[in-house]
Amino acid sequence: MTAATPPAGLTDTDYEAWARGEVDHWRRRVLAPATRLDRTASAVQARINRIIPEKVHVVVTDVIERMTRAILVGADVATFTPPLRDAPLDERDRRARAAVLAYRSTAAVEGGVTGAGGFWLSVADFPALIVIKLKLLFELAAIYGHPGEVFAERLFILHLFELAFSGAGHRAVVLRTLEDWDHQDHPESFETFDWRRFQQEYRDFIDLPKLAQMIPLIGAPVGAVVNWRLLDRLGDTAINSYRMRWLDATGAHAAPPI
Q: What tens-digit pLDDT sequence spans the chain (258 residues)?
């Protein structure tokens, strides 16, 4: 569920205190161990992966990596909206929630259309949805004052994507990477990034819902709901991660160790 709406009439200081509580609550959810349902879904996914021909795995994996890298590296992928300056956190959060709502609606429509179109259109939904997700992340980066053309910010975006769509066993590793981001040294290219792990985590996270999208008659409503929820999860992850950076920069938040 995307970040909660705060009480009205808070001062900037009170709002940051409220946001700190939201970030702490979000961190606990991110670090929670896998549930029984998660473990069952992972077992089912493993069986499905064994059934699907290796050639299909190779094609889907290649599409995910090429599309993601092209968007993050390409100069024309994001409009590079100028970063929002001189705005308090509550104003940034308000704009972020509006952006998530807009992209969430777009993703739901796209999922419904491709779900109604049968197997091949549902397959086409994979790269289309990646584009929508990454464009949302570029817009949120600008809202929270971070320039999308800077490589370190693109790397942060890639890790946000990874955090939102990884299993419980990998999320703590990604969160540790994001914490204290502005005080770390970062690589200058994507060559050191673990693309294989990124692809596998993403595919395992979305494969089961997306398979249901390919079922005749129910594909359209399933596609709309699945895409809505995936964008909602991504928005929640991004908003709280950018809040975490803001609070760390202002000294208003000190996250407990993982």
A: 556 778 888 999 999 999 999 999 999 999 998 777 767 766 766 776 677 677 766 776 777 777 787 777 765 554 567 899 999 999 999 999 999 999 988 877 666 545 444 444 445 556 777 888 899 999 999 999 999 889 999 999 999 999 999 988 899 999 999 999 999 999 988 888 888 788 888 877 776 555 555 555 544 555 577 778 889 999 999 999 999 999 998 875 444 444
Would you state the structure tokens that stand for residue 134, as one six-digit string?
A: 């990454």
Sequential DSSP letters for 156-170: HHHHHHHHHTS-HHH
Q: What is the CA radius of gyration of the chain?
A: 18
- The candidate with the shortest Cα–Cα distance to 167, out of 212, 200, 130, is 200
Rounded to the nearest 10 degrees, how much is the dihedral formed by the CA atoms of 246, 252, 256, 257?
50
- Host H or E run for residue 173: helix 168-178
Of 30, 40, 52, the C-alpha closest to 123 is 52
Asked if 210 and 126 touch (Cβ cutoff 8 Å), the reply is yes
The domain ranges of the chain are 12-250
In whole angstroms, give the CA distance from residue 150 to residue 186: 12
Question: Is the pTM higher than 0.85?
Answer: no
